């Protein structure tokens, strides 16, 4: 099993326990998983393709995919993770969901 297939299988199991699933947008999922495979190859972990690393390991571990447990309230409010790789299990149309900065949410 290659890394991308492994991520798909392993991450899918983890996020299912959190009430999420992969986005139905298969092209987006493929692109983001490809990016994570490359980030792992370069930097040693499948960091988020959509969030910048700080260089401080303890901080950066909070954006290793799937980062949902660290940002649960924020992502639950959007019904998606920041990249949109994962959506809530009841979401059929990911295009109806948008990124909302944490500062704009009343959490
Ligand atoms: S925002 Fe989504 S794709 Fe990015 S690390 Fe978090 S869970 Fe993974």
Write the layout of secondary structure elements.
Layout: H1 3-17, E1 20-22, H2 26-43, H3 57-60, H4 72-78, E2 86-88
Antiparallel strand pairs: 1-2
Helix pairs in contact: 1-2
The chain binds iron/sulfur cluster.
Iron/sulfur cluster (SF4) is lined by residues 32, 48, 50, 63, 65-68, 81-83, 85-86.
Description:
It is a single chain. This protein is mainly alpha-helical and 107 residues long. The chain has a single domain, classed as Ferredoxin thioredoxin reductase catalytic beta subunit (Ferredoxin Thioredoxin Reductase). The chain has helices at residues 3-17, 26-43, 57-60, 72-78; strands spanning 20-22, 86-88. A two-stranded antiparallel sheet has the order 1-2. It is globular and about 35 Å long. Iron/sulfur cluster (SF4) binds next to loops.
**Weakly predicted, low-confidence segments:** none
**Structurally, how many domains make up the residues?**
1
Unique bound compounds: iron/sulfur cluster
Beta-strand percent range: 5-15%
Instruction: Give the CA-CA distance, first to last residue.
Output: 40 Å
Can you list the strand order of the major beta sheet? 1-2
Class by helix and strand content? mainly alpha
How is the CATH topology named? Ferredoxin Thioredoxin Reductase
Shape: globular
Largest sheet: 2 strands, antiparallel
Oligomer: single chain
| Overall number of strands | 2
The rounded Rg comes to 13 Å
Mean pLDDT: 97
SS field, number of helical segments: 4
What would CATH call the homologous superfamily?
A: Ferredoxin thioredoxin reductase catalytic beta subunit
The CATH architecture: Alpha-Beta Complex
């Amino acid at each position: 099993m290659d890394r991308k297939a492994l991520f798909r299988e392993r991450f899918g199991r983890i996020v299912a326990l959190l009430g999420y699933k992969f986005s139905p947008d298969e092209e987006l999922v493929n692109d983001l998983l490809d990016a994570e495979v490359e980030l792992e190859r370069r930097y040693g972990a499948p960091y988020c393709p959509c969030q910048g690393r700080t260089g401080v390991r303890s901080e950066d571990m909070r954006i290793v995919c799937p980062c949902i447990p660290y940002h649960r309230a924020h992502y639950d409010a959007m019904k998606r993770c920041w990249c949109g790789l994962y959506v809530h299990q009841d979401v059929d149309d990911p295009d109806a969901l948008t990124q909302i900065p944490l500062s704009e949410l009343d959490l």
